[in-house]
Amino acid sequence: MTCSGNTADGDYPVKKVYTCFTTDIIHEGHLNILREAGKYGRVTVGALSDKALIRYNRFPTVSLEDRISLYRTLEGVDDVVVQDDMTYDDIVDRIRPDIIIHGDNWKTGPERALRENCLKALEKTGGELIEVGYTYNETVSKADLLLKEKLAMPEYRRKRLRRLIEICPIVKIMEAHSGLTGLITEKTVVEKNGRLDQFDGMWISSLCDSTDRGKPDIELVDMTSRMRTVNDIMEVTTKPIILDGDTGGLTEHFVYNVRTLERMGVSAVIIEDKCGLKKNSLFGTEVEQTQDSIENFSAKIAAGKRAQLTEDFMIIARIESLILERGMEDALKRAYAFRDAGADGIMIHSRKKDPAEIFEFCDSFRNGDKDTPLVVVPTSFNQVTEEELSAHGINIVIYANQLMRAAFPVMVQTAEEILKNHRAYEVDSQLMPFKDIITLIDEL
Ligand code: SPV
Ligand code: MG
Fold first, then answer.
1. Does ligand 1 come within 6 angstroms of the Cβ of 205?
2. Which candidate, 80, 115, 224, 293, has a CA 20 to 30 Å from the CA of 358?
3. What's the CA gap between 32 and 18, in Å, rounded?
4. Whole-model pTM?
């Protein structure tokens, strides 16, 4: 479609109109934007790249190529380009649109920052922002729900962790131990320095899952109960799940559990190379813990891999040599052995405050293996940044217990205050009204 018109001096130049799409499903709202855009000139649609989309919105259910093809078929679209970054500086510089069209829904919430960025970018090139009323209706909400449902399906959810490892400098995983903490991990979006960010997936920690049931972290909470937690979280979220599988238990049991987790849509299980009565790693050598032999643990990994039915599911081997003070050489020897046994990733753990031994391990491992994903849990070495971890070849960072540790002191303090005051009035101002909490909960 082209646009031209007549002025007293003849044809005026056709204006360049740009709009960025982040969707996999076209609904009335998008068609409305295109109709408006067409009134001003020649319309270019930007397809936001996967890596930008997952920080900004939700994971796409179709590939970038398919999104581009979809946008091309729409009436009123003259051209489709890829927008690589969620901010507008590069695309405005490249396309130099006279007009950018956007729904007015980005005037509030974290997206406000992108609106400001867009306005600044347009100021430099002399372009203009036109906002159209966002279309809120039943069809639009249904389309949104449909996308979410699709993302939550086991076959879509399961494979997404592998894709995230491919496209993210570092995959950010937050612990969840209930439907509510799952929702917090799923829906928290922040704005910093003009960009939006969110977690990529969830870690179902044995420590937090046990603690939430008032039990010690010694594999006392059995797999059936752990799977109930997985299911509670899956029912209300769409992001990929990594399960803390403790030692994996008996190999004869592990193979069944791999099948179940895979069928449920869990993306990965991490099992640690310990045997006997497992205690939490943060106790280190203060308690008696036994490391499994390389042979036994390799056989467990290999059996798990044989049991798997899809290419998507990952079994990640967790090495406890540094926790148990068995040295770097032992840790590296195990890492290569477990990889050779079929492990899809290696988690290296440490309880030192300084990340030096983690960096040493990762640098050495990367000398011999550029590809196998590396996972860390920086609970003790918590000053380290995601950027530093990524620079040492680490692919996944797990924030393993922070939500539970955040909630616990506030709950204890609230209980104490109510007991002291014989009423709840004194604590009320520190509590979130229930109507705010339930905004997290979706209605069908
Ligand atoms: C967990 O979260 O249960 C873990 C990580 O296994 S750690 O507690 O650091 O051992
Ligand atoms: Mg654990």
1. yes
2. 293
3. 14
4. 0.94
